[in-house]
Predict the 3D structure of the following.
Amino acid sequence: MPLRRIGRSAVPPEPESASAATAAGVVYLAARDYARAELLAKLIARGFARHAVRAALEALTEQGALNEARYAENYVTWHAGRGQGPLRIAAELRRHGVPGALIDSALQAQPDWPGLARKACQAKFGTAHPASWRERARRMRFLQYRGFSADHIRVATGDDPDRVEEP
């Protein structure tokens, strides 16, 4: 006999209760950090009233459980470690509803974007310099897709005008 998973009910037992929404928010935040807008959408989709969710979010923020600055820093660190650049990360954070000032401060805290672009390029294509313009363009498109700026791409592909050639 196969096991069946028992799902949660679509409507919470107390959809108007801010304390029930806060408890549900704590359950979500125990698993991972969320942006304020993400958690708002999750709790509303769960069936809680909008006014109860807003009160719950205020309570979670006061308790320190919901912290968008911490969320942005963790998001940048995680995605930079996966080889993504600042433009892509910033776009994703904006999509999650994180304010621009928090995005900028989290991106400034991350070290050496050109070094990360170089590392991502070397992981994909190896350490050999591209033999043709076609191969160089391929590497540039890859880094652009990953979210690196033109300056970072120039450094990673060896087109940096400020680079001094060693004899």
